[in-house]
Amino acid sequence: MHEKVITAEGTPNIALIKYWGKRDSGLILPMNSSISLTLGKESKMIAGKTFELRTKTSVVFSKYLKEDAIYVNGKRLDLKDTDTIERFRAIDMMRERAGIRERALVVSENSFPTASGLASSASGMAALVYAVAYALDLGLTRSDMSRYARIGSGSACRSVMGGIVMWNKGTREDGVDSVAEQLYPETYWPELRDVVSITSPKAKKVPSRAGMARTVATSSLYKQRVKDVDGRIDAFLDSLRRKDFHEFARIIMEDSNSMHATMLDTYPPIMYMNDISREVIYAVHELNKKNGENVCGYTFDAGPNPQIITLREQVEEVAETLKNIRGIKSIFYTGVGGGPRLLDMKDSLIEEGSLLPKG
Ligand code: 2P0
Fold first, then answer.
1. Where does residue 57 fall: left (phi above 0), alpha (psi -120 to 50 degrees), or beta otherwise?
2. Count of domains for the chain
3. Tens-place pLDDT, residues 227-251
């Protein structure tokens, strides 16, 4: 009955008010609420070609499958690995909700390289949860989906919706109220752009999950950050309501700086930025000063690659500034995305009638 193959795609998101630290690591419940921009699929290299920024995932549940099989970028994952088991718990939870025992075949591909500096975990988990929800006919709301995506990776819960999304930290111990909510659809501020610079394709030394746990355990500055975030969110929501880009940019820069300060205050310290990241920070402040107002704002995730949020008419000026910084390997930009969506049968990554990945 559940033998239909469903294919969905999702895109990454960039946190503007950051999530860093859990109050419950089993249920993935955050210490503070966070806000992000779901990124658009259509991306463009500066002075180069366009490309797609998305994860595509096909899913089928079948009584003919003996065990679950998950393929990511052509490689079959080891489902005995504890980290992988934890990341894909959402499939079991959704299967339980559907009241079935059929095993799943999941085939997933990222259209963007890992070295793009953008995490594929959010787009991957969002596409997966979306596809599974439809494959099992669960009739889930986006809010329900965000709860399942959260179990795979905290930041992923924000990618199940488009536009500007808030992950409410929630207060309940069972995490039921720790869900994402769309603040504004992708049509609200369509001029927003995210200009991403690649400064280093190297994998980070400290994974986010381990890094944030160490920050919560050792940084005293972190306690202050958690206290500050609520007020910052209020000011940020106000800047969004008024589409006041100057304030909007100031707040995202402050929040990124605050998160990276707590990383440095962690013991042993965590340092994701490199010299080029710092050059970009100086250059952005210089550019804003020259313009007499904030025309762009940087934000850094758990890595050295700057993402500069700006408006369409400023992309060129931002790119010109970045081109003068030595060591930046490539620059591309994208806009605001609409969140996950279903794709046609012809886009399926599963061979029709075979229960095997295509190709
Ligand atoms: C964010 N990051 O809000 C922040 C900003 C990195 C810096 O969420 O342990 O992969 O799976 O919940 O979501 C990265 O951490 O961690 C992250 P888990 P996740 O986007």
1. beta
2. 1
3. 999 999 999 999 999 999 999 999 9
Count CB-CB contacts under 10 A for residue 201. 13
CB 358 within 8 A of CB 351: yes
Pick left, alpha or beta for residue 175 (phi over 0 → left; psi -120 to 50 → alpha; otherwise beta): left
Mutate to test the pocket of ligand 1, among 19, 157, 225 (most ligand atoms within 8 A of CB): 19
Domain presence at residue 103? yes
Tens of pLDDT, residue by residue over 176-231, are 999 999 999 999 999 999 999 999 877 788 999 999 999 999 999 999 999 999 99
For ligand 1, residues with CB inside 6 Å are 15, 18-20, 28, 34, 121, 153-155, 208-209, 301-302
Alpha-carbon torsion (273, 279, 282, 288), positive or negative: negative
For residue 44, report the distance from its CA to the centre of ligand 1, in Å: 25
- Average pLDDT of the segment spanning 154-177: 97
User: Which CATH number is 253's domain given?
Assistant: 3.30.230.10
> From atom 8 of ligand 1, which residue's Cα is the shortest distance away?
155
